[in-house]
Amino acid sequence: MNARVTSRKSLFSKRAWTALAVVTVVAAALPLLNLVFPAGHALHVSSYVMGLVAKFMCFALAALALDLVWGYTGILSLGHGLFFALGGYAHGMYLMRAIGRDGVYQSHLPDFMVFLDWKEYPWYWAMTDNFWYCMLLVVLVPGVLAFVFGYFAFRSRIKGVYFSIITQALTYAAMLLFFRNDTGFGGNNGFTDFKRILGFDITAPGTRAVLYIVTLAFLVGALLLCRWIVTSRLGRVLQGVRDSESRLMFIGYDPLWFKLFVWTLSAVLCGIAGALYVPQVGIINPSEMSAANSIEMVVWVAIGGRGTLVGPIIGAFTVNGLKSWFTATFPDLWLFALGLLFILVTLFMRKGILGLFEDVKSLRRKTPADKPVEEKSREAA
Amino acid sequence: MANLLKTLAALLVLAFASLSAQAAIDPNLLKPLAGDDPDARIEAVARIAALANDDARKVLQALKDDTLYTTPDGGVLVVTDDRGWNPATGATGPLPDGVDGVVVNNRLRGAVDGALSGMALLSPDAGLRRTAAQALLARGVTPEQLPLVAKALAAETDAGIEATLRTAMAVADLQSPDVAVRKAAVIALADTGTASLRPQLQAMLDKNADGSHAEPDGDLRLAAANTLNAIDSRESRAEFVGNLFYGLSLGSVLLLAALGLAITFGLMGIINMAHGELLMIGAYTTYLVQALFRQYFPNALDWYLVAALPCAFFVAFAVGVLLERTVIRWLYGRPLETLLATWGISLILMQSVRTVFGAQNVEVANPSWMAGGVTVMGSLVLPYSRIAIIIFAALVVAAVWLILNKTRLGLFVRAVMQNRRMADCVGVPTSRIDMMTFGLGSGIAGLGGVALSQIGNVGPDLGQAYIVDSFMVVVLGGVGQLAGTVIGALGLGEVNKFLEPVAGAVLGKIAILVFIIIFIQRRPQGMFALKGRSVE
């Protein structure tokens, strides 16, 4: 991109490191405040707020994963809801088995299987009573699907809009499949009524606090990992794919494996986000795979500022915070607000919220703002 | 004096009776009706029906309507307004003392219904005769009805009704004790039989427990096997044609849904996620036009659809132009951003419709000329509404082709899409052409919405149901190719209909999506790729 970048850039500037540490510490303090101070105390944080923040962190992780492929590699996926849901389902299988005989029918089978009059688990449920095996599935299922799908798509050099549309088709097909009762994943209702995780009561404040901290750790870890990737030479190749793939090929790179790597990694991160989401929300069903959900993820990235990694996290918090507030106060207006947000961001905030900060900064310095890099002429598109 | 009058009346009645002796019913036939023996009564009904004249119909109708009474002397009277009409004499007079209603049980009522509909076979109205013949075929001919059907067959002039009657006769003859009659019936059924006869024919081929054939006559068994084969192959032919037709019809629906997208996405490169909502606007416009017609022109209600077409086109056109001017014109050349912005638009349009019309589906009725269908190949019914949509889709495609290839606007559109700068240089108003093109695509979506309103639910989610399919059609066909869109849509429709019986609706749909994903791997540009040497 730039001749200046010859040696490796540091991961973050000193100020950014400080800011990151402060935000992490503040976020980590929430469950402590929730546990230590009794309800009614000035410093008490309600479980509702804590749960909300934990949920948003899962969304932020998914947005981060999406930004890695869209913001840096220029591959817009409309199917990340699928990977999110698959990770959630993989974890959900363990949680369903952990219910044991405490279900409505007091069978060792989940209630929906009893309802279908099944006598034993289908083969793909084998070993899912093992937590670590399921954690492996959380990584493998989205990862392998993304790898196979990506391999064929990138090998045929499907890109841009076409790629987006077929990821949407894939997600739609999966949603239809999971809506079926005989798929063995609970049909419309999906998985719910979880009772315990690794032997701990899933609704206990202590368990929730631990899940919260784990989520925070994954989010911060993923942010560092992604940042490390995009500042490495690999990251520069990825940006090369985004800005001019054919030129990259003429130099002698084969974009296939670079794209495939980042695409698979993104799917895995998204699957982990889904796996963290399920125990905290208590339900996973096929509606997570609806087209609207995947597109909403794209909006988090766009609103936060694509290609910034931190931006999508801010975007996920902003949009979901707004959504929580709107759906509680003006439920009918939320879709209007979301729709307007889509339009205004694409029209006026091409670099998202982070872009606004940069614009303000550069205005103060009285230097012209950077020209957008990825502007292409109409003929090229 | 009174006696004299009575005698006079009796004489008059006698004279009249002798005049109309032809029409009157033999008292011996009527007598069992007044009796208690249920079998005799049913037989009497059948024999009265076999007379097949107006008097017989009157008696049976009276029996059905509970207006038939018995007299103490064992006769019957049809009572209307306290006056009795004696079918045996044809005389009408005041009710004598001691009349009693004839009790009709369910079995008798069934026999009467059958006899009455059998008599409709002789009605002068061909429509009534056809309905009666089809009802007879569906219910089966009883031995008592045979003479009546034979009489009707002899008098029948309409070839279609005659064939139906012959089939009904042959079905009845299958039970005949006479081998020759059974054989003739089996052979006759080879040309006209339906799948409902299969058990009866199969029974002829079955063996008894001791290994002997249930049907002793070997030739007859052969004929039955032939007839079974003929019926089976006719059924599978009909099924094939039915699948073909319904596939074509589904393809037309997909085509109407995707055609607008072929212009906005295919030609202009805009990922219009609000396309589904433009379809929805077309459907809701249809609903409004229908409501207007209900209110102001109830007599012309059947023609509301014709009025809805231009209305839907212009409403969707106007919405499209508005969107283009306010949002989309800023996003040309950035397809992924158009995707986001138009998704936002789609959310707003959906919620607006929900606010104005409510979240429930609204009712859009088919006009009466769309009801019913044409029967082909014996059992296959092709509904008029489906036929109308196929014709409509063909007309819209022809119109789009004409606009793009034969008009000045079409020339400009193609020029701008191929080389915007050059077109600008030679004086084409590119900005206005963009607006018109997007409006045209939207307007066609509106027309698609009118068609969709006729075959499915009209609700705020209508667009969502079609958006994925529409994109699949355009991508499969090859972007910017009208022929590709047409073949893509029809192909998907056919594949879907032929896959559905094998795999089920949902799995069939999944299979098609997977097929498209794989197909795009092989041919990323779709079936009809634009030829050129551009790298990207």
Structure, explained:
The complex is a heterodimer of chains A (381) and B (536). Chain A is mainly α and 381 residues long. Chain A has a domain of 263 residues. Chain A is 66% helix and 2% strand. Chain A contains 13 helices and 4 strands. In chain A, the strands form 2 sheets. A two-stranded antiparallel sheet of chain A has the order 1-4. A two-stranded antiparallel sheet of chain A has the order 2-3. In chain A, helix 5 packs antiparallel against helix 9. The longest helix of chain A is centred in the middle third of the chain and has 27 residues. The C terminus of chain A is likely disordered. Chain B is mainly alpha-helical. In chain B, helix 11 runs parallel beside helix 15, helix 11 crosses helix 19 and helix 15 packs antiparallel against helix 18. In chain B, the strands form 2 sheets. Chain B has a 5-stranded antiparallel beta sheet with strand order 4-3-2-1-5. Chain B has a two-stranded antiparallel ribbon with strand order 6-7. The longest helix of chain B has 50 residues. Chain B has 21 helices and 7 strands. Helices cover 68% and strands 5% of the residues of chain B. Chains A and B meet through helix 5, helix 6, helix 10 and helix 12 of A and helix 14, helix 19 and helix 21 of B.
Task: Label this structure with key terms.
heterodimer, A: 381 residues, mainly alpha, two-stranded antiparallel sheet, two-stranded antiparallel ribbon, 2% strand, globular, disordered C terminus, B: 536 residues, five-stranded antiparallel sheet, 21 helices, 68% helix, elongated
